[in-house]
Specification:
The chain is α/β, with parallel strands linked by helices. Helix 9 runs parallel beside helix 10, helix 10 crosses helix 11 and helix 11 packs across helix 13. The chain has two domains: about 180 residues, Cobalamin-binding domain (Rossmann fold, 3-Layer(aba) Sandwich), CATH 3.40.50; about 270 residues, pyruvate-formate lyase- activating enzyme, CATH 3.80.30. Helices cover about 40% and strands about 15% of the residues. Strand 15, helix 14 and strand 16 form a beta-alpha-beta unit. Bound molecules: cobalamin. Cobalamin (B12) binds next to helix 1, strand 6, strand 7, helix 5 and helix 7. The site of cobalamin (B12) has 42 residues, from helix 1, strand 6, strand 7, helix 5 and helix 7.
């Protein structure tokens, strides 16, 4: 069985502890039922072939195991031809992937995962390559794009089977049918991602539960998994311990959507176990945390257990917008969370607040006021560009208002192009705001406040005073 995590095809990409968690769970399950499994992760920056095909460049490796990918420039698809940025394929260069694949014995089945919906060109290129190199092997496609855009994937990807959703059991049944191999019965209750398939690995992603009980209008979590369930804290701790002490992994990122919910039964025991053990790991939450649940006790446990990168979901200062998200966070929640985190020992550079920009009904003032508020708390700003996701409430509203087409090509929802901001001038201003925020974050890192910097304030204010959209 050959399992593949294809490239990212986009205008920009950065490795924030990206690992194909779903595919690694599938690998583990396939192995336990008796198959021989090989992994090709095109986004593995430590892949031994990466150095051969793309000479090592130290600057690619940055803090805590994150970093840049090599990029091969591609011509833009016609739908994106007017975007004034360079489009490309991120990850192991094509020649390198061909080399890796040509050393393999022909697989019986190829399983391919998929990430963001608008990264589908990388998936299609991989399927085409597999069909050329291994014409006999059926290709099974799963993952996020396959779940959110199943019809698109079925009609256009070239995969033999598209399995949307949490489809690992379906994939096992299909493998049995295709190969005629009678699988072993897998009796073990817990399953772990097969990280040992990497030759060299220094970071990992972990999920302590699936789904999310909230229904934020812009988020697809409930479509990807309709149930919300959590793993046993002891099982999660054992996984962290194994990754850290047996695999020597120093950085672990949580991929959960609601990590802190029901903390006394979940994250508190997990962190207590980490603190009371010989585990020595840096923990990160690239996916935002709910600030309301960060109290003094939890902040202390997070500090002691080794959290290094904390991203708090704030989204916006606009009270109407906060209401539309079910009051999941208020200004005072964010303020209190930051206070507890800082009193526990976290510094400004370690904490960031997510702000959404580029929403269809959002003014520039809303974005700027949200930025000012987050900087007033002495933490960094992480600006997330809004992109409508098929099946979400935001998608339905935008389609009903005629802002997007129901059958819109996923490429047009790329967050880099701010798809819900039609006016090029407004787009340009938001990009300027992003650049100014990056400069301001550097000030925060140096211990300065951007709000005390008159020139910075002037530059950002000029953008808002010109016009709102
Ligand atoms: C962790 C995460 C990230 C990580 C990176 C993850 C990655 N590997 O790429 C970080 C924090 C960096 C990130 C960033 C962003 N993310 Co994000 N992220 C997630 C999150 C929370 C989890 C994804 C995940 O790995 N899940 C864990 C594994 C186990 O699940 P899975 O891969 O889906 O696999 C399951 C099945 O699909 C199946 N499966 C998987 N592969 C295969 C293969 C086969 C063959 C089979 C049979 C089955 C199968 O098995 C698994 C078990 O059921 C999802 C939300 C969610 N709940 O899934 C959002 C999500 C994917 N992100 C989303 C967004 C919008 C973003 C951002 C654009 C946010 C922003 N505006 O800045 C950025 C952009 C990233 C970029 N351009 O680089 C959207 C998707 C948007 C889209 N159009 O596709 C999601 C759905 C969240 C949302 N808002 O609704 N993200």
């Amino acid at each position: 069985m050959l399992l593949i995590h294809p490239w990212i095809v986009d205008f920009a990409a950065y490795d924030f502890w990206i690992k194909p968690l779903g595919l690694l769970y599938l690998a583990s399950k396939l192995r336990r039922t008796g198959y021989h499994v090989t992994l090709l992760d095109c986004l593995d920056r430590l892949h031994p072939f990466m150095r051969q095909c793309s000479p090592s460049d130290k600057s690619r490796h940055r803090f805590f195991g994150t970093g840049y990918y090599p990029k091969e420039i591609l011509s833009k698809p016609p739908l994106l031809k007017n975007v004034p940025r360079r489009y490309g394929r991120y990850g192991l260069p094509m020649a390198c992937v061909r080399n890796v694949l040509s050393t393999l014995e022909a697989p019986q089945i190829i399983f391919i995962t998929s990430g963001m919906t608008y990264w589908y060109p990388g998936v299609f290129d991989m399927i085409a390559l597999c069909k050329t190199l291994f014409p006999e092997a059926p290709v099974i496609l799963g993952g996020i794009y396959a779940t959110l855009c199943p019809e698109h994937a079925r009609s256009k990807s070239g995969a033999d089977y598209v399995l949307p959703g949490p489809s690992i059991p379906d994939a096992l049944r299909l493998a049995e049918t295709i190969t005629g191999f009678k699988c072993f019965k897998d009796t073990k209750a817990s399953i772990r991602p097969a990280y040992d398939l990497y030759k060299v690995i220094d970071t990992a992603a972990i999920r302590t539960g699936i789904g999310c009980p909230f229904r934020c209008p812009f988020c697809a979590s409930h479509i990807l998994s309709s149930e919300f369930s959590r793993r046993n804290p002891e099982d999660v701790f054992q996984e962290i311990r194994h990754l850290n002490l047996e695999m020597n992994i120093g950085d672990i990122a949580f991929y959960d959507d609601a990590l802190l919910l029901d903390q006394e039964k979940h994250i508190v025991p997990i962190l207590n176990k980490v603190i009371d053990s010989d585990v020595n790991v840096r923990l990160h939450t690239p996916n935002g945390l709910h600030p309301r649940w960060i109290n003094r006790q939890l902040a202390g446990l997070m500090f002691q257990s080794g959290f290094q990168t904390l991203r708090l979901s704030y989204e916006s200062i606009n009270p109407e917008r906060q209401k539309a998200m079910g009051m999941k966070v208020t200004d005072s929640d964010l303020k209190k969370a930051v206070h507890h985190l800082k009193s526990s020992g976290f510094t400004s550079r370690e904490i960031g607040g997510y702000i959404l920009m580029g929403l269809p009904d959002q003014t520039l003032e809303e974005v700027i006021e949200s930025i000012f508020f987050v900087f007033s708390l002495g933490i960094r700003v992480s600006l997330a560009s809004f992109s409508p996701i098929p099946g979400t409430e935001s998608w339905k509203t935008a389609a009903a208002q005629g802002l997007i087409d129901w059958n819109m090509d996923p490429l047009l929802t790329n967050n880099s192009i701010l798809p819900m901001v039609p006016d090029p001038q407004q787009k340009w201003k938001l990009i300027q705001i992003k650049t100014l925020c990056a400069q301001a974050n550097q000030m925060v890192i140096r211990g300065e406040s951007p709000l005390q910097n008159a020139e910075w304030r002037r530059q950002i204010r000029v953008l808002s005073s010109e016009s709102a959209y």
